[in-house]
Amino acid sequence: MKGIKADILAFGAHADDIEIGMGGTAAKYAAAGQTIVFCDLTKAELSSNGTVASRTEEAQKAADLLGVQERVTLDLPDRGLFLTQESIRSVAEIIRLYQPKVIFAPYEKDRHPDHGACSRIVQEAFFSAGIRKYETNGKDNAHKADRLYFYMINGFHSPDFCVDTSDFMHTKKQSLQAYRSQFEMGADSVVTPLTSGYIEAVEARDRMMGKEVGQTFAEGFLTTVPLLIEHDLIGDKE
């Protein structure tokens, strides 16, 4: 881990979580020159399809397609994500290492327990990383990110705000298609929710989200604190 300073640091329980929820947003801000870092909490070693090695290769390809500068993977156990001091400290160390302006995590309400657990761990780490006396690896380099936002993986929830991703939907789809072991049926594959039209469902959700805000595609996000609107309250002059 190099520890470059990140504008956006996004966490997911497994590789492909971030792409599903905010791949278009990541690509959009990367194209605008922002530094994007992804962190997967587990190696997804219990996935029904694929292997740790194939998933790692696919994850890096997906990150490259989106313009992500760095992708790191922690060694927390798949289906063993719990709100422990170890898990909180591991995530807090990543936050302090990359010093992000904004952090993203999965929305807590999700059919997969690991996604909700990841959300809770990141929320705790977001707070703890900013406490000067909170120790991570014996270092005192507290960092308080400006904001913590939540993206959707499974399901459709009413967002607090949306990002127009119309110009980046194709890139998002490419990043998801990089996970061939997860979204395609191979000779040794078993049927899962991911192999049954999942990418098409994500595209439909982003299209519906876009329709809600007058765009072709959009990704929706949630927040626990109000957003301050300034220059874009009225919108651009025509």
UniProtKB/TrEMBL annotation:
<dbReference type="InterPro" id="IPR023842">
    <property type="entry name" value="Bacillithiol_biosynth_BshB1"/>
</dbReference>
<dbReference type="InterPro" id="IPR024078">
    <property type="entry name" value="LmbE-like_dom_sf"/>
</dbReference>
<dbReference type="InterPro" id="IPR003737">
    <property type="entry name" value="GlcNAc_PI_deacetylase-related"/>
</dbReference>
<dbReference type="Pfam" id="PF02585">
    <property type="entry name" value="PIG-L"/>
</dbReference>
<protein>
    <submittedName>
        <fullName>Bacillithiol biosynthesis deacetylase BshB1</fullName>
    </submittedName>
</protein>
